[in-house]
Design a protein that fits this description.
By secondary structure, the chain is of the alpha/beta class. It has 17 helices and 12 strands. Helix 15 runs antiparallel to helix 16 and helix 15 crosses helix 17.
Length: 394
């Protein structure tokens, strides 16, 4: 029985992971569940899955959870703080870690799992965006296995010709790969004019037409920054240059991505838009297990549409390609500025169309330098956030 730590268990990926795990009680046991501050939701998960450890980042929430578990007579250890996330990610009893904490906050714990040689199921794309070379180096040195959870990257992984080492080791030219076709739904504003985009509300932005996701990721999808981050992630995972990746808008979200080979073959992975599919694939890889996802009904789908991505109306995508081409700390700057801008948009403080302006300003203001260490990347992240906040306060 494999012991599992879920980093970010109260979010959408964490909840879907527990749904898959519950279908295979003889195969998986939950060792640790973690959340930032939603202690009541974590309490419900503790009641059902009885982990050894529960982690709350927020101290007040940790105290609430500890008291509630004691009142119910549940002998579950409660830890608090960021360091506890790293502890349960690297714990000796754990073999599988689902890294599903959103944003830069999930970087250290994902890296801890990699350094400890775990099977790392990476749903936190920002970890690779910020620290791609460092994270992959940790995977290689420790013998960890890195498997992607984003539906697009999981689809690419399933369409590539290796099944032994996980991601990060592929030499695409040697395998005859010409390019990757990274699909995008286009989000809720795919057909909006530039004028209409300036007036959209946070409530409209988080209402994704196909996927059930958290608020931050939903806004990123609406701006196409999510796809931009996935471009950077794909470069690291599959050893590709930005010029080998093409973004294709596919509104139905049935084909999750494609790989084109030099002989003209194009392989794709298809399925209903449900994150339990890539989660089940990565949990059991290289085997297959039931995920609870209904069979794909092609007659109900009836048609599949494709169109080019519009980098004029959605400049976040072009900014992401530019950051990856610049290299060094540029992707970390991009990610930090975006997190600040999205937070302000969700608070109603800035228009939707200001998000890419903040990112562009930070990339123009803070020079990108070569990556040297995790400490340096965290400093760069902090400086980008300060510059973003200064720009917004003008």
């Amino acid at each position: 029985m494999e012991q599992l730590t879920i980093l970010g268990s109260t979010g959408s990926i964490g909840v879907s992971t527990l749904d898959v795990v519950a279908r295979h009680p003889q195969r998986y046991r939950v060792f640790a569940l973690t959340a930032h501050s939603q202690w009541e939701r974590l309490l419900e998960q503790c009641r059902r899955f009885r982990p050894t450890v529960a982690v709350m980042v927020d101290a007040g929430a940790a105290a609430q959870l500890r008291g509630a578990l004691a009142d119910e007579g549940l002998a579950i250890e409660v830890l608090q703080g960021d360091a506890a996330l790293e502890e349960v990610a690297a714990h000796g009893e754990v073999s599988v870690v689902m890294a599903a904490i959103v944003g830069a906050a999930g970087l250290k714990s994902a890296l801890a799992a990699a350094l400890a040689g775990k099977r790392l199921l990476l749903a936190n794309k920002e970890a690779l965006v910020i620290s791609g070379a460092l994270l992959l180096d940790a995977v290689r040195r420790s013998g960890a296995t890195l498997l992607p959870i984003d539906s697009e990257h999981n689809a690419i992984f399933q369409s590539l010709p290796w099944q032994r080492q996980g991601c990060g080791a592929l030499q695409p030219e040697a395998q005859g790969v010409r390019k990757i076709l990274l699909t995008a739904s286009g989000g809720p504003f795919r057909e909006f004019s530039a004028e209409a985009l300036a007036k959209v509300t946070p409530e409209e932005a988080v209402a994704h037409p196909n996927w059930s996701m958290g608020r931050k990721i939903s806004v990123d999808s609406a701006s196409m920054m999510n796809k931009g981050l996935e471009v950077i992630e794909a470069c690291w995972l599959f050893n590709l240059s930005p010029d080998q990746i093409e973004v294709v808008v596919h509104p139905q979200s049935i084909i999750h991505s494609l790989v084109e080979y030099v002989d003209g073959s194009v392989l794709s992975q298809m399925g209903n838009p449900d994150m339990r599919t890539p989660i089940a694939h990565a949990l059991a890889w290289p085997e297959r297990i039931a995920s609870g996802v209904p069979s794909l009904d092609l007659f109900a789908v009836a048609r599949l549409d494709f169109e080019p991505a519009d980098e004029i109306r959605f400049p976040a995508l072009a900014l992401s390609f530019a950051a990856m081409r610049a290299g060094g700390t540029a992707p970390a700057l991009l990610n930090a500025a975006n997190e600040v801008a999205v937070e302000q948009f969700l608070l109603g403080a800035i228009p939707f169309t200001t998000i890419p302006k903040v990112i562009a300003a930070v990339l123009d203001t803070v020079p990108a330098v070569a990556v040297e260490s995790l400490e340096q990347l965290l400093e760069v992240d902090g400086e980008a956030r300060r510059q973003a906040e200064r720009w917004l306060q003008r």
